Write the structure tokens for this entry.
Amino acid sequence: MAQLLVDVDMLTEEQAGERLRALTWLDDDEPEEMTPEDLVEALEELGVAVITNYDAGDSLDEGYAGFFEKIARWFPGTVEISDVRVIDDELHWVWNGQPNSWHTEHMSDRVLNTLTMFEIITSLPVDGDREIHQVGWPDHDPATDDAVYVLATPAQALALGEALGLTLESLWVE
């Protein structure tokens, strides 16, 4: 899978090697032997996908910090995100030195707001001809399953979808 991401220019050889070394569970499986859920998890761990789910872990701050860490991998070496915290109904973070905030509501201190994550992802300042794509597969139910997003050019999204049996739908509407 890492070689596919290099072939479609989503990762450099160096990035693929570094990230693949951290994924011991991926070594034994070829993409055609993996479930769609395993494929998107591997894409996330390789740094090209972001899976949004409601689980905050130990705290909202920790959960959103993890979310922003995943986003930062879409912009290797060019984006630094820090100081992620939730104060009352405001999510705060610093993006390349610039403070940001987003109004959000939470029913619990262990449940992230997936609508807030969607809104942040779709408002990202993407570069060049890359777009945010939502990932799906035959038995994926967007109403109940975690949402998965990939930042890719239309050609990369098409190649990735064809090679892995996934659908990648652009979220940009012209």
In short: The radius of gyration is 16 Å. The helical segments are 2-7, 13-21, 36-45, 60-72, 114-122, 154-164.
